[in-house]
Amino acid sequence: MARKFRGTETVKVDGKGRMSIPARLRRVFDAGDPSFPTTNTGRTQLVAVYGPDWWNWIELYTLEAIEEIDEQIDALPRGSQQRRWLELLMNGQSTELEIDREGRLVLPLKLREKLGFLDGVETTFESRGDYIQVYNPDQRPKDVEALEDFASTYGPEFDPRAFLDPQTDEE
Description:
single chain
């Protein structure tokens, strides 16, 4: 089973677009890069999905997670709207990046401008299990706002773990 990202971190962007990835998050990226243990480059590969223009965040995926998503997309009927939409999002609106030997991720200028990640800006790295959502804390991601609206329909006493399948002790 793949390791999961957990927790929230604040990460500063420097003038060259570099962000130092916290060590505990780097370990998950390293574990999710099949070539990492066999190469001596000290660089970990990952995929950043930046999405359509209205997205005010990016999602950072391990290679392992992206391969699983690619398999699910490939299983959809070729030419279907769902497949075409997912191919556009996960392939056309993404880019491959790497974490360097010093544990830094360099965001391309295009992404920094899209997200407003200027020199000295502090970003939020919020774990989502198999990916990290990265955003400017001054601009809440639109999908989080939608989730909060969804959650509010259940009321403050509702435990979202009720959505999980119950575990049985039967064998």
